[in-house]
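call fold(seq) -> tokens
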Amino acid sequence: MWMDHDEFMPLVKKVWDQNSGGCPMYQLCYKLRKLKQELKLFNTTHFSNISDRVKDAKNKMDKAQQALHTAHENPILCMRERDAIRKYTSTVRAEESFFKQKARIQWLSLGDQNTNYFHKSVNGRHNRNKLLSLTRKDGEVVEGHEAVKSEVIAYFHRV
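ret:
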């Protein structure tokens, strides 16, 4: 999430390029401590309350699009709408990345320990991937493992 932000790498470079003096291990510890402080501030500034930020960006985008709808020839409104869409898209991407990381953390802490959670998630995925019935072009519903299997084979032989 941070790495996709335009200001992330320049921030890391700025902190890392600071001269701290002392032995190499001290320099490393100093730079890591400074980087941690800067990244906390960076996170608070750009990503705190990410879901609220997505809602705000969506509202701004909707307002910009409504204003553009009434005066669609206005270049300022076009630019404002484009910026609002860009902001909304990047904020949604950041929120998605945040929730993916959170889910990954939960999976790592619960998923590989042969737990009930692990088995439920595997079984849930297996059930979502089942093909229980098909509807033919003529509207007839085909059910049952063997009937669905033969219908799929027949379909691909016709195609």
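Residues 15 and 34 are 7 Å apart (CA to CA).
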